[in-house]
Amino acid sequence: MPSHRILLIGATGVFGERLARMIVRWPDATLVLAARRLEPLQALAARLDGPASVETAVFDRTAPEGLAALKPWAVVDAAGPFQSSDYRLPLAALAAGAHYVDLADGRDFVAGFAAAVRPPTGLTAMAGASSTPTLSQAALARMTAGWTAIDAVSAAISPGGQAPRGRSAMAAILAWAGRPVRLFEAGRWTTRPGWSGPVRLRFPFMGNRWVVLADVPDLDAMPARQAPKDSAIFRAGVESPVGVWGLWLGVWLVRLGVVRSLTSLTPLLWRLTGLLTLGASDLGGMVVQAAGRDAEGRAVLARWSLWAEPGEGPSTPAAPAAAVLRGLLDGVPGPPTLDAILAQLRFNCIHTRLDVSWPEARGLVPGALGPGYERLPPTVRAMHAGLTPIRAEGTTLARGSAGLAALVRAVLGLPANGRHPAVVEIVPHPYGEAWVRRFGSGRFASRITPCPDDPGAFEETAGPISFRIRLDPDAAGFTWRLDGWRLGPLPLPRRWAPRVRARSFERDGVYRFRVMIAHPWLGVVFAYAGRLTSP
């Protein structure tokens, strides 16, 4: 099998090492690790495990004259920062007869790349093969396929506070913080200061996080490729509010003319990183959202989400570059699809989901599931159409732990262990739906309301406690998944939340349900299963 020499520049960086771990799995590649110092390269080479051959080379990306001597088949630049880079490296790669790919997040660098770097026939040159704009664009292409109109698009990234980060990434952020950022908003091009306009944004299975305006290539790519009528915005943030608001205050030093740029603070902030992220987790993620009209002209809201388990987040920006290289090796050049990118993350603990809702649909479940509702079995659709009041009767088998769990059941009106007759009433209201469940002599009432800013989600409230729920549809029905909870307006930590396993489904033409609510401190609070039919 022929081996293709892939020169990975910046291999010892946070993203470079993750990319190296992906490439080393390919038996048809020779991975040449490159950076300015040999010792870290040799240490990285010793840690890598895979069928690819691994070599090391001392190389300075600012002096690319010696690149041809390394005889690369492809050159990947994962070093950065790209905000101050020129095009000598990609031009040197093409002159050496090699493909060129980078992880550039510098907006001006990516915007000028196509005009400055023109690959000859048979070679590929691609800038921005990272989370922005390649991954976000792949997600938007999947989400909006077949739509007749796009009104607004947006994306946001929030790495975990304890996630590994590179000094060049911090320098890149500080370069545009407080400086004018050009963006498409309210149907026109305008400018706003970078790292301004803080908003609380929902990241599925991560909770709400503060994010602010970021100056990235997506601000050009989204208006050019999706052509939204109203807006295209990209936001970024860190998990720690101290970090977000501390940098937001620093932005005013730039806006007031006290300093020209915050880049001079990079060494100081790098040393303070531990303090700014004190108490933060290592859970990071990304959301990409679009609103418009689907193929049938219905109002549609779609969101693609990604969340990474501790230690896995930095693999995400490396995956698009790996997908581009894998495509070149397989004879499929060009921007990678979403599936091609996610294939590079299959060995990582990284999760994704796509939620599509119909904001104008009548009925809570049809609105939350959008096209997913139409694929549900007839009995499940009928039970959750949300157009008229529903009363269903049947039987249920309940069980639960003794002690404090039994006391909680009694307070909530839930039945004792055993078999009971069951009646469920669902009444549509302007705010959503009112549910009353009667099990024997017990009565449990709750209120369910949609989350307009959170596609596919709703909240179920019983007394002072509200649970945020997502629905995962399948051929037989849907699963209810807990995505947060609160006491009144106060969000509660996810680690204190109960464990919920709930499912509504059809079997043998009958609507069935299965629910278990447990808590590490209490045991099984309540578990029940049964069937219902409408009289």
UniProtKB/TrEMBL annotation:
Residues 6-104 form the Saccharopine dehydrogenase NADP binding domain. Residues 376-532 form the DUF4166 domain. InterPro entries: DUF4166, NAD(P)-bd_dom_sf, Sacchrp_dh_NADP-bd. This is Saccharopine dehydrogenase. The lineage of its organism: Bacteria, Pseudomonadati, Pseudomonadota, Alphaproteobacteria, Caulobacterales.
